[in-house]
Amino acid sequence: MRYAAIDIGSNAVRLLIADIIENNGSVSFKKNTLIRVPLRLGDDAFIQQHISDKKKSDLLKSMQAFRNLMDVYKVTDYLAYATSAMREAKNGEEVAAQIKEEAGIDLEIIHGSKEAKVIYASHADQNIDKSKNYLYVDVGGGSTELSLFSSGQIMASKSFNIGTIRILDNQDSEETWNEMKDFIREHTRGFKQLSGIGTGGNINKLYRLSEEENDAPMSFVKLKSLYTYLTSFSLKDRINVLGLNQDRADVIIPACEIYLTVMKNAGIKSIYVPRVGMVDGIIQLLIEKNL
Prior knowledge:
alpha/beta; 13 helices; 11 strands
């Protein structure tokens, strides 16, 4: 069996095709193909509250390509979710209807609370001591999802309109930053030795740049020094000298700022980076749905 996950984010759209493995009653998956297209829907959605004809056309073409690939790979089930950008675009539902009609893909525009649940379903904590206390931090182009866990139980969860594309477009508000800081301080106050779990493309890239070994957590100090190092380069040099992808070289800076802010306000000294994201969570939901 093969399942597919489609994630329409504010920075990029992704397709993950996964092979489903059944072994002695347990079901897992192996990533077969992952495709990422940097469409930047957030540039339209956060400034104009509208997906432009150009972006809509690119999104439709991407979805038609994803549909064709799913057919070729003989995918047996899929889920397609859209997040922050499509949530805020006034024509989001209209675009979703067009995708259904022209690409044959059922697309659900999900709220921040469901987004946090999907990300948690990725089992980012499976190799981590569940008896400890963790703050999950997922940073996207349009929003940041925070979930506090203690002894494997969810204690609090919230989505905030703070994301990398939103910051680059100056569409983040001081009020929302303060709201996020208040939420962190209020809910983490009673927890000593809180660790972080970071998901999202940017933290994965930062982790690779940190050269940590054997899945060791990345320290706040290391992340801060990486931030200082990256900001010492111009955008052009982050692409040409450091070899970052064009669509990663700009967003990695605001992503760093969000993770550092969260860690500082929660008193987190180190963050685990399990290198999973939204698409992994979607595949996991498909496994649970089809059990």
